[in-house]
Amino acid sequence: MDLIKFFKFGLVGFSGLVIDFAITWICKEKLLFNKYLSNSFGFLFGVVNNYFLNKYFTFQNNDNH
Length: 65
Fold this sequence. Notes:
This protein is an all-alpha fold. It has helices at about 1-30, 35-60.
């Protein structure tokens, strides 16, 4: 059971990495944002993605508290 959570945690982390790099690249290369702003957006979206996926997918926590 814990091994499954470990792999889910890794999968969520990898998805956050992909989202971080994708958002950063889009903002920097396509939208021509400043590199610091692009990195900030990428990091923000990656962290939010990881938080919610870990909460609901990895650890199945539906408690509002």
